[in-house]
Amino acid sequence: MDMWQQWEGRVVSGRFPLLRYLGGSEQGAVYLTEIDGSKAAIKLIPADAELQVSRWELAAKLSHPHLLRILHTGRWRADDQRDVHFAVMEYADENLAQILPSRLLTPAEASEMLIPTLDVLDYLHGQGMVHGNIKPANIMAVGDELKLSSDGIRPTGESEGTFEEANPYDAPENASGAISPSSDTWSLGLTLVEALTNRLPTWDRTTENDRELPENIPPPFNDIAKHCLSWHPGRRWSTAEIRKRLDEAPVTRKEDVVDQQLSEVAEAREFPAPAAQWSVPPPDVREAIVGQPGTKGQRRGGRVAAAVIIALVLIAAGVRLFQHSPQTQQPVSTTATQPSAASPMPPTQPASSPASRTNASVGHDAVTRKVLPDVPRKARGTISGTVTVKVKVDVDTSGAVSHAALVSSGGSGYFANQALLAAHQWTFTPPTVDGRAVPSEWSLRFEFKRKGIKAIPQRTSPGA
Fold it and tell me: pLDDT tens digits, residue range 294-336?
């Protein structure tokens, strides 16, 4: 892998610069590149991997709105006289494997994920081909579209190939030979279970028993997963049967998917999501992390994928913001809802506050720095109405926040995390009792709306 990382800065075939190493393994690497001024991904593999090259050439001839395009393939001799094959592909913003370590998909999102995926598999199976590698890392967000990877596509009946490594999403029959459409069904069933529970069902590969499914899978997905994960390929549902079952019990689709309660992951997973082991974006070297904004899909197109795309792009973005991005600071005087030193908000006086016991005079205090959560406009665009998050902060005698605690999430873990991060950075003029600064306690109410974010502070202790 170190060898692949050292190629950053080189130009493949005099046309495709290796701008940034995205990830890989001993079998290959994926780099960020450019084609005609647009971002793309380029995948490099050893010169002896001829089977993969044939698959690239096959996939390059396919066209489906939810299938990542292979834009260019070729052979290149590196500066050290080493020959490699390469494929330039569309660049994807995120993939599902990056999301699952932080949250699960809601039933509405799972439905929106299944529909375009089934469309792609219908198309491939009708062309006499199989996808061969359905898993979270290969379900990607490309602009406002959901797309599947394409560089593992192969004719029905073709074996895995010696250059590939087994993975926990492989159907039982993959190890002994040919892959069929029912193999894709198996992998789709596992992906669905993981998306809803963040774990893969237990299974003894030495037996012919069906996998045991977690009990908390909601309908109709429990029925779909059960019929996808039959050990015998002939008993598995086809994509048409899966779609029929989904249509019989439609899941209510909400535009405001980020506003739904996020499922926090507290349990250890049987199999970690493979792509989660990579740095962002974590590519799987068998299926490149690639994509670009695509055309509107067939049937329901972008509207079908909109909810799960928001989850893929925005929730992952939320994790990065939480870890890295500074918050937007706004002076107190710029927000109408912000009390100032000259016009403080009337405080609520608890009966047990020190001021009520001592009748001492409490000097007025004020917010001296307000930090609003740094939420992308596209994330706010998913809100219907208002998401209200309440945070309690303890303020020390210097006016800095010493502790912040969530009081109410407003039903959204994403927005709650952003509010907490922002609250830690507020500063205050501490109140005084008999001329001396004293600690205080504040309630911060963050109101997230499509048009913007408002913060309303109120001191709760000590009373005036």
Answer: 443 343 334 434 445 555 544 444 333 223 333 333 433 333 3
Mean pLDDT of 42-49: 91
H/E segment holding residue 87: strand 83-89
Distance CA 179, CA 18 (A): 34
Burial class (CB in 10 A: 0-12, 13-18, 19+), 435: exposed
Residue 262 pLDDT grade (very low, low, confident, very high; cuts 50, 70, 90): very low
**pLDDT: is 150 or 249 the higher one?**
150
Measured between alpha carbons, how far is 312 from 305 in angstroms, rounded to an integer? 10
Map tokens 């959901």 to a residue: 146
Task: Output Rg (C-alpha) for the chain, integer angstroms.
Answer: 26
d(CA 418, CA 430): 25
Q: What are the phi and psi torsion angles at 55 (to 5°)? A: -70, -40
Q: Which residue, 57, 89, 121, sits at the end of a domain?
A: 89
List all residues 6 or more positions away from 15 whose beta carbon is below 8 Å from its beta carbon: 35
Name the amino acid, one letter, at 152: G
Tokens of 459: 């001191």
Alpha helix (H) residue ranges in 165-277: 181-197, 221-228, 239-248
Is the separation of the CB atoms in 259 and 449 below 8 Å? no
Q: How far apart are CA 376 and CA 361, in angstroms?
A: 43
CATH of the domain at 59: 3.30.200.20
Strand ranges, E, within 128-241: 129-130, 139-142, 145-148, 154-155
Structure tokens at 266: 């507290």
Which among 321, 19, 299, 316 has a CA at the least distance from the CA of 139? 316
Contact 89, 42 (CB under 8 A): yes
Question: Residues 20, 146: one domain?
Answer: no
Residue in the block written with tokens 């005609």: 36
* Domain assignment of residue 8, given as a range: 2-89
Contacts of 7 (CB under 8 A, 6+ apart): 18, 21, 29, 31, 44, 78
Q: Are residues 41 and 108 in the same domain?
A: no
Question: Which DSSP string corresponds to 401-429?
Answer: EEEEEEEE-TT-HHHHHHHHHHHTT-EEE
- Clarify whether residues 275 and 155 are in a common domain: yes
Looking at per-residue confidence, does 302 or 380 come out higher? 380
Report the largest interatomic distance among the alpha carbons of the chain, rounded to a whole angstrom. Answer: 85
Evaluated on CA atoms 118, 119, 121, 125, the torsion sign reads: positive
Which residue has 């593999």 as its token pair?
45
